[in-house]
Design brief:
Layout (H helix, E strand, L loop, with lengths): L9 E8 L8 H17 L10 H9 L3 E7 L1 H8 L4 E4 L4 E4 L3 E2 L5 H4 L22 E5 L7 H18 L2 H9 L4 E5 L2 H8 L5 E3 L11 E6 L6
Parallel strand pairs: 1-2, 6-7
Antiparallel strand pairs: 1-4, 1-5, 3-4, 6-9, 8-9
Helix pairs in contact: 1-5
């Protein structure tokens, strides 16, 4: 059997809307990106005989690579015309598209900026609410906001795969409630060694290969 490294490589494109006058808040952008990945994974077009199902399977059979780009104004409007799904948070808009070959991006997306996406929070995020999944970022790593968005997307996907069918259905029905927070340094080692879904980055950009970036947790039973 061939390994995943031998398969054609696809990438899941995500585009975050960043207008100069009203950029989204960092944490909201991270959470919206994670939900966008889950919405794409669970969409009827992505499963079974859906129109995106084959390319979704091909992507998931190889590396689950994601790339986040940013757009504003006319760039965003052009990107929004391509097949995909826009997910909206409190301040953030993220559009997720069916996977594309690593070297076969649509021109409307290929020209968008991928590096240097940096966003800020205006205050401390609220404490996570009961029933939310938790995506914990590694406090020892420094990543751009765009890189963090891809990493929490990976974490959400690993958590989705680890859930039971019943929990997945309930989580989807609830609208994928989740929170992204940076773990306390004293707790990171415990989280990373807990057996929870753990993202290890391939190291293509910004950080070293094998770096542990996100631990995903859904501590409450979903009824």
């Amino acid at each position: 059997m061939s390994s995943s490294d031998d398969l054609p490589e696809y990438v899941l494109p995500l585009v975050v809307r960043v207008e100069k006058s009203e950029p989204p808040a960092r944490t909201d952008a991270l959470e919206t990106a994670a939900r966008a990945v889950l919405v794409m994974l669970s969409d009827d077009r992505s499963v079974g005989d859906g129109e995106w199902a084959r390319v979704m399977r091909d992507w998931q059979d190889a590396r689950i690579r994601k790339v986040v780009r940013r757009a504003r104004g006319g760039e965003w409007r052009k990107a929004a015309l391509l097949p995909g799904i826009t997910v909206t948070g409190a301040t953030a808009e993220v559009r997720v598209f069916p996977p594309v070959p690593l070297d076969g991006w649509p021109k409307e997306l290929a020209k968008l900026q991928v590096s240097g996406t940096e966003l800020d929070d205006t205050g401390e995020p609220a404490p996570p609410a009961p029933g939310q999944a938790l995506l914990w970022l590694n406090p020892e790593l420094t990543m751009s906001t765009g890189k963090e968005m891809a990493q929490v997307g990976h974490g959400a996907q690993l958590l989705w795969w680890a859930m039971t069918d019943a929990d997945r259905a309930a989580w989807r029905e609830a609208g994928f409630p989740l929170a992204v927070r940076t773990a306390h340094p004293d707790r990171w080692a415990e989280l990373a060694g807990s057996g929870r879904p753990l993202v290890r980055d391939a190291g293509f950009t910004e950080i070293a290969p094998g770096s542990c970036t996100v631990v995903a947790d859904f501590p409450l039973q979903v009824n």
